[in-house]
Every structure is written in structure tokens, then in C-alpha cells.
């Protein structure tokens, strides 16, 4: 079989891999705090056999990281919403250990713990879950301090509950997990960073550019069609060659 088929089919497979990454970005355009995942191609020269010229190049698709630019800040006015202002992350507890997110759509679960919209406990600066008084009115400060006023309490009796664990590890040390959360490469917890600030009553939208993602999807689709056309042409040429040989025989 013509080796161009292997080269073209490999290229088509890599395009489909990249398309799946772009499609995932598009699916998360409305996901709070989502970080766009990068997908690139890398050329890999094919080692020629004896007597062949090094004319073929294969490709490999890879996802080297994520875009960490800030998404648009949207004001919600909800007391339990918060957005990171600038660089930084919220720390949450997962079954696999501590993880980090930019999604600040918080809620209170049945155990009166502050949790993410997916039910993961939000961590305090001392590394533990944050208890919220039942029917209490919660207020976030820009430094992550959480205060609450119980139902029917005097405003002078406001109590400090905890401080959000806000971290800012180097971006090159963060790895995206299958759950969409980020963790350090070694899985070790990061120490709180007092310079990280939040914007209470806001959420940060996804940083995916829908228009750019759509253009990338269209471009990939066209490249896939070109790879399929190469395969079709190679197959046609092989059939013609076989017919010529058959006639000559």
C-alpha cells in the first residue's frame, strides 16, 4: 500500500485529537472560571529506510498547557459569589487531595459547609472546611476573610468564621486534571498567598474566545478534508496503476 496513506491518515487522526480539545473549549464557554486548553501540532520526521530520501514528516498533537489570561468579571450580587481579582486560585478539597479552581460560585451544603457548585468543600487558610452558621448572612472581604451574622443577631455580633485559602503557585507547576481542576505537578498543597485578592459578588467567566474557537474548528475541518482528499487521490492512483499493470500483463 502507498505509504502516503499512512502519513495522511496519521495527520487526519491528529486533527481529530485537536478538534476534540477545541470542542471541549467550546463546550465550556459558559463555565465559570474555565481555563482554555491549548492544542498544538508538532512535526516528527519519519526515519527513512535504506535507499529512501527523508521526505516524509508525521505529526503529533499535544496539549502543552492552558491559557491563564483572566476572563470577564460579571457582577452577580450574590453573597456567596466571589472572583479572583488578578492572579490566584481558590483551594478546594477533592477525593484526590487539594485542588485549585477559579470558579467562585459557592453554596452551603446540608452539613453547613461552604462548597463549590459541584459540592467540593472550599478550604480555609488553615486547610480545613469552612463552617457556615445555619441561616447566617455571609460576607466576603477582599482578602478572603469570611464573616457571618446569625439570623436575628445584633449587627454588632458579627463573627469572623475563617479566611479563604487563596494561593498563587507558578503557572508552569499546575497540571489540569480530568475533573477540570488544577493541581501541582507533585500533588503537594500550596501555601496561602496573602497578595491574592477577591472581588465579592462577582464571578469570573470562562476565558475561551468563542469566535476564535469557532474559527479553529472550521480550519481543522478543512484540514481534515484535505487529508481525506490525499487518501482518496492515493487510492485512485493505486487503482490506476494496478489497471495499467493488469493491461500490460
UniProtKB/TrEMBL annotation:
Flagellar hook protein FlgE/F/G-like D1 domain sequence ranges: 83-148
UniProt xrefs under InterPro entries: Flag_bb_rod_N (IPR001444), Flagellar_basal_body_rod_CS (IPR019776), Flagellar_FlgE/F/G (IPR020013), Flg_bb/hook_C_dom (IPR010930), FlgE/F/G-like (IPR037925), FlgF (IPR012836), LlgE_F_G-like_D1 (IPR053967)
Main location per the UniProt record: other
Record's keyword terms, sorted: Bacterial flagellum, Cell projection, Cilium, Flagellum
Ranges where the Flagellar basal-body/hook protein C-terminal domain occurs: 200-243
Statement: the UniProt record of this protein carries the keyword Amino-acid biosynthesis: no
Residue ranges constituting the Flagellar basal body rod protein N-terminal domain according to the UniProt record: 5-35
PROSITE patterns linked: FLAGELLA_BB_ROD (PS00588)
Chain segments annotated as coiled-coil in the UniProt record: none
Phosphoprotein keyword on record: no
Compartments where found: Bacterial flagellum basal body
PANTHER family, A to Z: FLAGELLAR BASAL-BODY ROD PROTEIN FLGF, FLAGELLAR PROTEIN
Similarity field: Belongs to the flagella basal body rod proteins family.
Subunit architecture: The basal body constitutes a major portion of the flagellar organelle and consists of five rings (E,L,P,S, and M) mounted on a central rod. The rod consists of about 26 subunits of FlgG in the distal portion, and FlgB, FlgC and FlgF are thought to build up the proximal portion of the rod with about 6 subunits each.
NCBIfam families according to UniProt: FlgEFG_subfam, flgF, PRK12640.1
Name under which the protein is recorded: Flagellar basal-body rod protein FlgF
Source species of the chain: Castellaniella denitrificans
Amino acid at each position: 500500500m502507498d505509504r502516503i496513506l499512512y502519513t495522511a491518515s496519521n495527520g487526519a487522526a491528529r486533527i481529530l485529537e485537536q478538534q476534540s480539545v477545541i470542542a471541549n473549549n467550546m463546550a465550556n464557554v459558559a463555565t465559570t472560571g474555565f481555563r482554555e486548553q491549548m492544542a498544538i501540532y508538532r512535526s516528527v520526521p519519519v526515519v527513512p529506510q535504506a535507499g529512501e530520501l527523508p521526505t516524509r514528516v508525521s505529526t503529533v498533537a499535544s496539549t502543552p498547557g492552558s491559557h491563564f489570561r483572566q476572563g470577564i468579571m460579571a457582577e452577580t450580587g450574590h453573597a456567596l459569589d466571589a472572583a479572583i481579582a488578578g492572579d490566584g486560585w481558590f483551594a478546594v478539597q477533592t477525593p484526590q487531595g487539594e485542588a485549585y479552581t477559579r470558579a467562585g460560585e459557592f453554596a452551603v451544603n446540608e452539613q453547613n459547609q461552604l462548597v463549590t457548585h459541584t459540592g467540593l468543600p472550599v478550604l480555609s487558610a488553615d486547610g480545613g472546611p469552612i463552617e457556615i452558621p445555619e441561616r447566617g448572612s455571609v460576607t466576603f472581604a477582599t482578602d478572603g476573610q469570611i464573616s457571618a451574622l446569625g439570623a436575628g443577631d445584633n449587627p454588632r455580633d458579627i463573627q469572623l468564621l475563617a479566611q479563604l485559602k487563596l494561593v498563587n503557585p507558578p503557572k508552569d507547576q499546575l497540571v489540569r486534571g480530568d475533573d477540570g481542576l488544577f493541581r501541582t505537578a507533585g500533588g503537594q498543597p500550596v501555601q496561602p498567598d496573602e497578595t491574592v485578592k477577591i472581588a465579592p459578588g462577582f464571578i469570573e467567566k470562562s476565558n475561551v474566545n468563542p469566535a476564535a474557537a469557532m474559527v479553529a474548528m472550521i480550519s481543522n475541518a478543512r484540514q481534515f478534508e484535505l487529508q481525506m482528499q490525499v487518501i482518496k487521490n492515493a487510492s485512485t492512483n493505486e487503482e490506476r496503476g494496478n489497471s495499467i499493470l493488469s493491461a500490460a500483463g
